[in-house]
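testing teh design pipeline on a random one, pls ignore if ur not involved
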């Protein structure tokens, strides 16, 4: 894919005053999905791959907060300034502030290519807020993908990560090792293990996920939106399984509605 023509997500990352470059053309069947899954299952990787396949915009709250750190105080809204203040103190950004950041960017949900929402919602309160926003925008979710991976594999995956202290590149001691131990291939910086990538911290993160985010599985299952996909294996293979699950949902939905038209049975493409 020609990366020079990809949507730069400026409106999502920089706020409502920014305009995206290289917006996709309006799709006949835009994809609108939410990604769920515990830390370490690879939601960000899958969101990027699905975005390439479908042309949908990758709306990541993690990317949004990381981008905020590069903005001047004049560029920041009150909600963004509040979020950064919590982050500087090592605290989780409260639901209400995360919701304000998302709501400030509600226009992004009307992206003509659709969207892949990664990192939001994380709680039932956020899910309820998202539902009201979607209703106000006259939009519907196509699916909620829940990526599943055993806790032991998540611990192994995250505890093996090493991050460059200089350029923030990420490596893995077994699946993506640097050429030289503890040294970044890109800039030569020192690689280190983040505190939240240590095994004990990972267990705490997984417990927090079970308390706050796992109930969303029941919430979206009751709405008939949930589709579970195993997250073990190579990213490309997981992406193919996800795409197959999405298309199966669409075919089944068309069959149940009695709509046999080509448009109803078509894939999520232009």
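output:
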């Amino acid at each position: 894919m020609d990366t020079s023509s990809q949507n730069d997500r400026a409106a999502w990352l920089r706020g409502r005053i920014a305009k995206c470059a290289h917006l996709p053309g309006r799709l006949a069947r835009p994809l609108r999905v939410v990604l769920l899954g515990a830390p370490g299952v690879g939601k960000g990787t899958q969101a990027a791959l699905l975005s390439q396949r479908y042309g949908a915009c990758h709306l990541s709250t993690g990317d949004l907060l990381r981008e905020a750190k590069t903005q001047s105080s004049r560029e920041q809204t009150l909600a963004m300034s509040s979020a950064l203040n919590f982050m500087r103190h090592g605290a989780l950004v409260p639901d209400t502030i995360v919701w304000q950041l998302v709501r400030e960017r509600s226009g992004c949900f009307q992206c003509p290519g659709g969207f892949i929402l990664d990192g939001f919602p994380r709680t039932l309160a956020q899910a309820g807020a998202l539902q009201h926003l979607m209703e106000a925008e006259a939009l519907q979710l196509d699916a909620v993908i829940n990526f599943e991976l055993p806790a032991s594999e998540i611990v192994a995956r995250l505890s093996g990560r090493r991050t460059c202290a200089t350029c923030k590149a990420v490596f893995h001691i077994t699946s993506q090792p640097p050429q030289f131990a503890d040294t970044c291939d890109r800039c030569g910086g020192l690689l280190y293990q983040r505190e939240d990538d240590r095994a004990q911290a990972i267990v705490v993160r997984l417990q927090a996920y079970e308390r706050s985010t796992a109930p969303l599985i029941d919430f979206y299952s009751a709405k008939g939106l949930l589709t579970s996909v195993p997250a073990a294996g190579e990213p490309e293979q997981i992406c193919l399984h996800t795409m197959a699950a999405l298309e199966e949902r669409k075919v089944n939905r068309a069959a149940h509605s009695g709509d046999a038209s080509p448009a109803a049975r078509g894939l999520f493409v232009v």
